[in-house]
Structure formats: C-alpha cells, structure tokens
Amino acid sequence: MTLSRRAFLTRSALIGCSLAASPVVTPVTFAAAPGDNRLVVIILRGAMDGLAMAQPVGDADWRAVRPGPVPGEAGGPVDLDGRFALHPAMAGLMPLWRAREMSVVHAVSTPYRDKRSHFDGQDLLEAGVADLASGARRDGWLNRLLQHYPGSGTHTAWAIGADPLAVLGGAAPVTRWAPEADLALSPQAIRLAEMVMQDDPAFAAAMARAFRIADGDGDALAAALSPEDMGRMMAEDMAAARGPGETRLAAFVAQQLQGPARIAAFSINGWDTHAAQDKPLSRALGRLSDAIVALKDGLGADVWGRTAVVAMTEFGRTVRINGTGGTDHGTGGAMLLAGGALHGGRVVTDWPGLDEASLYDRRDLMPTRDLRAHAAWLMRGLFGLDVATLERDVFPGLDLGADPGLLL
C-alpha cells in the first residue's frame, strides 16, 4: 500500500508518532518567498543599558556621569570611532565592525515615556504603535510586514524560543520552534516517514532536518538509520542545533535562513540591571555578541551578505549610576545592527549630549529619533516596501523621516 503524505500525517498518531512539536507539522510551503534578503530581530528584554554597550567616550560630560576605564586602559571599552567605544564584553564583534558589518544606532527609543513598565514597554516595542490606548493594534509589526510580503508562506518567518514573541503575532502564518521541542519519535515512525517521503526530495530534506534538530538525544535516529546515514546527517548540523542558550537559537535561525525562511526573531533576557550591574551586564552583552557571531558562522558568507540583524530593547536606562552600582529605568537607548547587508562601521546618531540640560527629565539620555524609523528603513531596503505602507500599516502613524542609509 502506498501512503500519501496526508494519510501518513493522519495515521501517525495511531503508531505513537508525536509530531505536534515538530516544525514540519504546520502546513508547509516550499515556494521560496521573493527576494534573497533576510532580517533577524533580537528583542533584548529588561531594558539594555545602551550607554554601557556603546559608550560616548568623546562626550565631554561622559566621565563625570560614568567614571571608569577609557579605551586603551585595562578593562576599558574598545574604541570604535573616537566618539564611541564598545563594551569590552563585545570585543568579539570587532571583526564585524572593521568589515563594516556592524553599526550602532544611538539615542533612540519607542514613543513610550515616563511610566517605565517593562510590560508596557515591551508590548509597545513589539506592537510597533505609538501608544497602548484602547483600540490600539496589538499584532506585531513583523507580522504586519509579512502581510505585505508577496509569496509569504508558513516557513517564511520563524519565532524562535519559548518566548511568545508578540512581534510576530498576527494574521500572517508564522512557524514557531523552541529548544524544548522533542519529536518523541519511535524508530519505526522515522522509518515510515522515510518511506513516505523518499519520492519527494524537498519534503524528505525538511523532515530529516526536523528529525535531527528536535530529536533531543539522537537515540531514535541512531536506531532507525544506518551508521553511514547517521554520520552524514549528524555531521551536517546536529552539533550546531544542540549548542547552549542563545547560541543554539542563533544556530537554528541560521539553518532556517539557509532555506525558504527570510525573517526570524528571538529574545535574550537579563538586561534589568538595577544593582551591581557590571557582571550581569557583561554576561548579557557577551551572550548577545556570541549569538551574532553564531549567526554569521551558521549562515556562511553568501547568506550573511544578504542579512541584517537588529537588536532592540524596550527603553534605556538612567545616565548616572545609582547608589547600588546599577542603573534605573530610563528613556533613550541604543540599537545594535549586524550583517553583511549593512553599510556598517558607523555609529548612527543625532547625539543630544549628556549635560544635565540636554537630558530627558534631567536624568535620561534624550531620544532624538524613533527606533521604529530605523527598523522601517531596514525593511524598505531589504524587502522593497514603500514608505506609505510602512507608515500606514506596518508602523501606523510613524513618520519615517530621512533615510539613515543603514544598508548597502
């Protein structure tokens, strides 16, 4: 008897095949979306201290508000352009900076002001709207992008990790995957899947990739496949898929972007640094740096050259260090951009200054541009969306302003 793919997926439940956690169970389209550019959005939850990440060492007031080592001193930041310096925990990104594959966008924020709630700030960041008043849109701006992206299918966009990622929530289909997903397949089920898919190379390849990513310990694969096949499949990408933390998420993102995927998002926690922030902030910045390097390594030079990565956070932190060695919830912050598609090696900012009269509420970095405008210009350059669509539908009510020239 010959089983169709539909019959196989229907009958698999009867043989104990738990496919619910698999990325391939969601209806799959193998029609590649138009264009070869990719966008990765990393949400930094907890309000990253952008002034610590990209330190304005060229500002005359910097050392008065943030005493500490300067570029060239032990433990000091790494000079970028004489005006700004990168936190030493992110020194691993300097090859990208020198290759003009990394930029910092400084003194930016969402329209959120004064209430300083992480929950509201993150809701507004991911919804991409000006406020959270009754009736405001709550779908995500990346999902609204997909709704204007011709040929978008189930695997065009991926939400990665256990976080709900509201930025991708909405009417357009999105595939979700978390490291905790486990196919729980028996060797017999894998054999049956192979038999069903053997005449459809594209579907068979996707199924094989899902098996080796989601089979947590590899036992089912080892029992079902020949030693030769097991070695070939495992060598391809199992090691990357089983890496730790954000590195594992980034490796999985890279795998999808090598196929039909064009958009992906995941989040990194750990940025709420109210006290003794030096060590936890260094760890968080190191994790972000490692994730970006893993993306570059996993994508390879060709796909990386058509990729932009944007890391953004819900709001900034206070300019001055507080009495417990940390920073409190602030306003203006910074975005980190990476990717071979960038016109990088620049700190993009209309810098407001750090003297007290120039601060927001005399305590925070003054935001001089809406971070949504930078995200919108990235989408316009990568995917060709027109300004009217971006201002009306993707970021309702946004004025894009002048093109900051973020892309090549």
Automatic annotation (TrEMBL):
This is Secreted protein. It holds the Pfam family DUF1501. InterPro entries: DUF1501, TAT_signal, TAT_signal_bac_arc. NCBIfam families: TAT_signal_seq. Keywords: Signal. Residues 1-20 form the signal peptide.
